[in-house]
Amino acid sequence: MQDNDHVFDYIIIGAGTAGCLLANRLSADASKRVLMIEAGRKDDYHWIHIPVGYLYCIGNPRTDWLYNTEPDAGLNGRSLRYPRGKTLGGCSSINGMIYMRGQARDYDEWAHLTGDMAWRWENSLPHFKLHEDHYKGADAMHGARGTAPSLMLDKNVPYQKVLRHRNAGGEWRVEKQRLRWDILDAFAQAATQAGIPATDDFNRGNNEGVGYFEVNQKGGWRWNTAKAFLRPACYARPNFELWNNAQVCKLVVEVQADGSKRCTGVEVWTGDERMTVHATRDSGQDRGLIGEVLLCAGSINSPQILQLSGIGPAALLQQHGIPVVQDLPGVGANLQDHLQIRSVYKIQGSTEKGGKDGWGLSLNTMANSLLGKARIGIEYALRQTGPMSMAPSQLGAFTRSSPEQPYPNIQYHVQPLSLDAFGEPLHNFNAFTASVCNLNPTSRGTVHIKSPRFEDAPAIAPNYLSTAEDRKVAADSLRVTRKIVSQSALAKYKPEEFKPGVQFQTDEDLTRLAGDIATTIFHPVGTTKMGRDDDVMAVVDSHLRVRGIRGLRVVDAGVMPLITSGNTNSPTLMIAEKAAEWIQAGL
């Protein structure tokens, strides 16, 4: 007989981007008990909520798993810091807050690779809109709270009925940024002079253009998924339970009477003891046929948990003495990420008027003075505006790395500041940074356990720039940056290339420099990819069910077969929205 205190209909592993939305949707049915397990602490750390606080959350054990990559040949032997959120809200509590869906072609290709038309753009757009609360209001491409009956607030309304109200906005707030910079306006004008069209919306299916990013903020504060989906709804529901500071050790998989395998629970380390919780009800002959475990731990931790549970490449599991429960060679393979190449340009000019918003030529000189820091702090305290409300990147652009590219394949994140590396002090001269990344890398990496201990971090090997195609795009994208900066709109600032340096011109030079100066933009995906039945590397099917294991799904960015053409947080919410629909419908 099971202890009913440890028996649930749904066990959600990970209170990150996908997990928080799933908890909200599934606990809306009062007849279902939902347990959410999070390894990190609550999101009550003040720097989580102040937008610029990502500087103090990344690399902080309070909020970050503190991962590093293996030394990477494509980066000339360098190892990178690899932040992953370890707190309620997961990566949405430490990320760049940029609201970005990607391109319609991304989802059409997912549909092709999985054989499931549910993933096509036109069939995914409603699931973006369902939880979106866009500051401009609802239209054919956006949802906004208050434009239709607020069905999401009524836990008695069936999920399918909510879905039919396509313009009924949800919980995920999208706002415009609360400051601008003259130097960024000038970069945007230069980009249009270089042939990149201006846009005021990157999220209508074709994100080609240049403009300011929209952000997941509310009134100048970070809007993470814990705020959006857990509170107040989940916390007020007696059928919802949250365990934080609790790390999953492994999944429990049992062989059923018919010979099939089913995930029936989870082993958890609470800090004091190792215990088992069950995703099944003791109901006589039906025992083991009720309940699901939903793995939402992210592209790094989800494959790690699967491998620790004996689900993964047989040779890897045997190497670490783990009994093979299900041989799935794709677990931990297919790792994709956006590698950004940071070009820094020194600038000159008058700051007498302090720019359009009074913040000077760049943030460097303002933030490097005590008076400037005091002014920045006071501005945020009084109005929640100014540099403390900044996302890590303010201006964006999507374009082609060369005329031969059939669609926009590179993305810019442009900032009115510069530094040697993330976490380092700002330079003591005025400058801006134009970071560019290959949206559709062909390089593939891995995430593999190093030991059978759940406490040990896995080996993360992105294998950046490991294909000739990726190396070519890297070199070409640096030339695109130089073309933009050479336009007349920036001439008055006398931009001088500080990094990588104008002396580097050939493909070989630029590729080598990319390896020296490039860094992750924190978008790992693909390590538990979905695919067709005949795809031996597919870990889950198109409804995110783990192959060969009943009662187990993966719901996070790891299921993406191909990385989206942009930031990955909001696509992960869309994936969770679809998963919630399928789970509640028993599909």
UniProtKB/TrEMBL annotation:
Alphabetized UniProt keyword annotations: FAD, Flavoprotein
| Superkingdom of origin | Bacteria
Q: What is this protein called?
A: GMC family oxidoreductase
Matching entries from InterPro entries are given as: FAD/NAD-bd_sf, GMC_OxRdtase, GMC_OxRdtase_N, GMC_OxRtase_C
Q: Where is the Glucose-methanol-choline oxidoreductase N-terminal domain?
A: 298-312
What PROSITE patterns does this protein map onto?
Answer: GMC_OXRED_2
Task: Tell me which cofactor or cofactors this protein depends on.
Answer: FAD
The similarity comment for this entry is:
Belongs to the GMC oxidoreductase family.
* Claim: Membrane is one of the keywords in the record: no
